[in-house]
Model the fold of this input.
Amino acid sequence: MGLRHSFLRNGFVGAILLLMQVLAIADAGLPERITWGRTPIEVLLPVDQERLVRFPGAVKVGLPGRLQPLLRAQSVDGTLYLLAHEPFEPTRVMVREIASGRVYLLDIAASKEEGSTNPIEVVLPTAKREVRDDGAPETGEVSTPPAYGYVALTRFAAQQLYAPARLLQDRPGIVRVPIRRDSILLVRGSNIEATPLVAWRANGLYLTAVKLTNRTNQPQVLDPRDLRGVWLTATFQHNRLLSVGNEADTTAVYLISARPFAVAR
Done:
């Protein structure tokens, strides 16, 4: 009986150890799921081992100059591939979602002794459902995004172009849309060059920021009546351009229309 008990005990312990090894191996490949709440995401990399960070949509990353020799960062279809060549201290990196313009902040560091290769999956918080008086959740979808007026949309566009990156904030319901950045004939005459920069859609309206540059050696006064197209509002960042070559020879105009920019103009 002693031998039988010893065999059973040893077999049981062996099974437990085997199970622990299997679980450890399985856990090694599990993604670390992080809900984005505007708090910078800490990413610790092991040197010479690639780690993936997945986002809800396609992104582009901007590396600080001092980090570029130390870190390889490639963005493909919403996945960021990070590979550290040498150890470095935590460094703030900005990642921008292309479609929405949403900005994520990563605090990336690399170490020879620490770090994980488990993928990181960044997810957006789930909006809360409406609750009826009886305490039961509504069966419909989450509440609609807030409506924005012309002033709020124009202010949003100006902030996106001129505010420091650390002050940029996303707005629910304002979605970035693609736009061609070819030079266009927007201002009557040939004195002002116009180049679309970025466009958004919100509440059935279209918001477009266009760069305006003086081509002449004479100052130019900007007048919304000189704009081609059908616009609900047109707001200049500055209403006067100095001569070409001057620091103040360029500004932006924010256009709101009921139809996409390419159609409205």
About this structure: DSSP finds three helices and 16 strands in the chain.
